[in-house]
Structure formats: C-alpha cells, structure tokens
Amino acid sequence: MVQSRTVVKVIDNTGVTFVRCISVLRGPRAMGSTGHTIVASVRDTKGVSKIQKGDVVRALIVRSKNEKARYDGSWFIPGESACVLVNATGNPIGTRIKGLVSKTLLKNRDNLKILTLATQSV
C-alpha cells in the first residue's frame, strides 16, 4: 500500500529513480494500491533528464508491495512498490518500462498502453 510520504521506485526510462508520494488521487487519507494514480515529488534522478529533482509529477502504481490473492487462487507478492510516470491524461511519459507489471491494471482499460510497453506482466 502506498500512502503519503511513501518512497516508490520508478521503473520507466524517464531518468527518475525514486519519487515520494504527496497524495493519492482517491480522496483524503486514501491508501493507494496497484492501478491508482498518485501525485509525487521527484527524489532522485540519474543522468540528464527533463524532469529534475523536486518536480511534482503524477505516477501510476504498477506494483504494490502488499498484493491480495487473485480470483484464480494465485498470489503475486512483489518485494517493493513501483510506479510509472504519467501525464495529466494518464499516458506514460517514458517509452519503455523495465520490470514486472501487475495484470490487475487490466481492470481499467486506460492502462492498456502501460501494459503493452512493459516487458513482463504477471
């Protein structure tokens, strides 16, 4: 679960490595999980990037550390939470996504672009 002030890893190629959650776009005191959008502040970047440290961005959570059981009885419990930077319309800013992406993103058809960019979906 992601809440305010949680540090989340970014798994796309925007040059940002970590962001800190400012708020979850679900209402006050909301907890975010896979598929929710957060407003975050950039904590760390690598190399030269258009997005600098301290910028406020939106991100979509693609992996949550606490994952629930699926309908088919299987469990997917990743070791860390991860996100992908998105713009105001929900389209990803980066062109590649490294690492695993949860298939629970299929619940919302707006996330199909992110699923197609991902290397693996579990």
Automatic annotation (TrEMBL):
GO terms for molecular function: large ribosomal subunit rRNA binding; structural constituent of ribosome. Keywords: Ribonucleoprotein, Ribosomal protein. It comes from the Eukaryota. One of its GO terms (cellular component) is mitochondrial large ribosomal subunit. SMART domains: Ribosomal_L14. CDD domains: Ribosomal_uL14. GO terms for biological process: translation. The keyword Ribosomal protein applies. InterPro entries: Ribosomal_uL14, Ribosomal_uL14_sf. Coiled coil: none annotated. It holds the Pfam family Ribosomal_L14. Belongs to the universal ribosomal protein uL14 family. This is 50S ribosomal protein L14, chloroplastic. It comes from Rhodosorus marinus.
